[in-house]
Amino acid sequence: QVQLVESGGGLVQAGGSLRLSCAASGGAFTMYALGWFRQAPGKEREFVAHISRNSDNTYYADSVKGRFTISRDSAKNTVYLQMNSLKPEDTAVYYCAAERTTTVRIDPREYDYWGQGTQVTVSS
Q1: Distance of alpha carbon 123 from its chain centroid, rounded?
Q2: Contacts for 1-4 with beta carbons within 8 Å, 24 or more apart?
Q3: pLDDT tens-digit profile of 57-114?
Q4: 119 pairs with which residues across the strands?
């Protein structure tokens, strides 16, 4: 059983930056690929970014490509999402999730473990 705890959310002006963290415990961190998702009020949860088990492959939603960067630190059992050039439409609750496959997964139903989420609000 893997536990995931996100942090780093907050209120930021458009054009600003935030770095989200997700600390994992209770399982072998390197056995899991990790993803970030977000959910705005009244909308479905959507894929943001994915990183493979050994960090050799990353994948991004078109809406964040070039602005967001996903990374992981196996020594700290933590995955990060660096968010730059934030826009009001990035406002959402951001979740990290873990899955054990070796291919990119963008469907939230294919993830096994989830964190509780952290709120990101971007003001215009």
Answers
A1: 20
A2: 1/26, 1/27, 1/113, 2/26, 2/27, 2/32, 2/98, 2/112, 2/113, 3/113, 4/96, 4/97, 4/98, 4/113, 4/114, 4/115
A3: 999 999 999 999 999 999 999 999 999 999 999 999 999 999 998 888 999 999 999 9
A4: 93
